[in-house]
Amino acid sequence: MTIKKKKLFKKRIVILFVLVACLLIFTLIVNPKNQEDKKLTSASKTFVQTDRHGKYDYVLMKTGDVNQMTIGAYQGCEIVSFYNALVYLDKTQDRTVTDWIESLPYVGWGGDPGSGYAGNPWTSDEDIPDGGFPTIWPTALMSFAQENIFQVADLSGKSISEIKDAVLSEHLVEMWVTIDFAEPNITYDDY
Prior knowledge:
This protein has helices spanning 3-25, 68-71, 77-89, 97-102, 138-147, 160-168; strands spanning 46-50, 56-61. By secondary structure, the protein is mainly alpha-helical.
């Protein structure tokens, strides 16, 4: 396995970890149960199943269905997930997913993903420069959401049980995780 492929594999693991945290960020954006909007509400786009004791054990939220690969945002999983959550909440501000991607704060290749998007979400895997790691960390995406007047919460470090409770309470959760929830192997932190 070449160094570039190893870095790409590690990148994907870290991106999964970052997606978990981002999903967590949206857990407290808006509680659909408190929506008083007369049009189609988030709660009306939610399917809930309960167990035999009447407790929620399954929630399916009909979020947006934009596929990052289909639109060519190969490295844009974080912002496309963010956009799909906004679709569910009916809070896209009449902006397209491309508008949201283009409005991200960019810090360039090798930049600090805690400050903005490092790299370019439109870059294919083959075109990632050596040492490149296209991503945005939860803190930067949270700041971006807050700058766009969205209320978010960081649930980093919460247990799977707490995350499940948030989802079962019909809160959107964007998560950054590793494959099989393995311990992240962050090999580059020189920002």
